[in-house]
Amino acid sequence: MLGSFDYVRPRTIVECIKTLGERADAAVMAGGTDLFVDMRNAVRHPACLIDIKGIDALRVLDVDGPSAISIGSSVSLNRILENPSVRTRFAGLAAAAESIATYQLRNRATLVGNICNASPAADMAPILLVLGADVLVAGAGGDRTIPLARFFAGVKRNTLHPGELVTRVQIPVQSGLRTGFAKQQRIRGHDLAVANAAGAYSPETDVLRLAVGSCAPTPVLLKPLTVGRASALELVGSALQEAGEAICPIDDVRSSSAYRNAVLPVLLRRLIETLISEKEGR
After folding, report:
1. What's the fold here for domain 54-172?
2. Quick one: how many helices (H) and strands (E) in the chain?
3. Span 234-256, pLDDT tens digits
């Protein structure tokens, strides 16, 4: 049972921030796909739900900007992955969104909600990390920008201050960037990741960025690698060596740590091979 709670539907960001300041017992609801599960399972007990779907400024999806794209906090995953510009310019972003849940749930679930939930297995986190995304936040104390790499604080914990609201995620545009996403799960269809990974390769700079999820308390951004003449297998070895203790898979209901340690290099190799396959001489 979800229990009883007050319901507020603000029309502006200012109104939302005001309500958050007045109600320390409130929870922000965008899609609600994670929040309602936590409430049903008695993990969270908000006395007030603030539904942000009615705030026009948070529904903006701007993917055609020359320097950055902007994704509002109430933009659904289906709006992102079905956008032609996203599929053309950010294939990895579309693939990550499409890997989440079912079509019906993606009509409600949001990219911002996925990262705010801060699950180690969040499927949108690795691709946003390699893209260098920023999280834009509004609060009573003013606006601030948090690099996504500093947004995750632990399992189901982020670095938002009380009373703050994520308004959008901003992703810088880099010409010619190739992106990809890979995920291993227990079953076909709707399931959380046993392990996931994302990559972004710039042919112009010959730099490869990788990130992995479900293998540590938070999603992990690995150090950038220069591809050069290295093979995909060599690049995987370099990436995991650089990661060191940052990647520390555990045993849980979805997988053993041994399986995660075994499958992660396979995911990374497949991802890297796809990203660098058109490099001259390969």
Report:
1. 3.30.465
2. 10, 15
3. 999 999 998 888 899 999 988 99
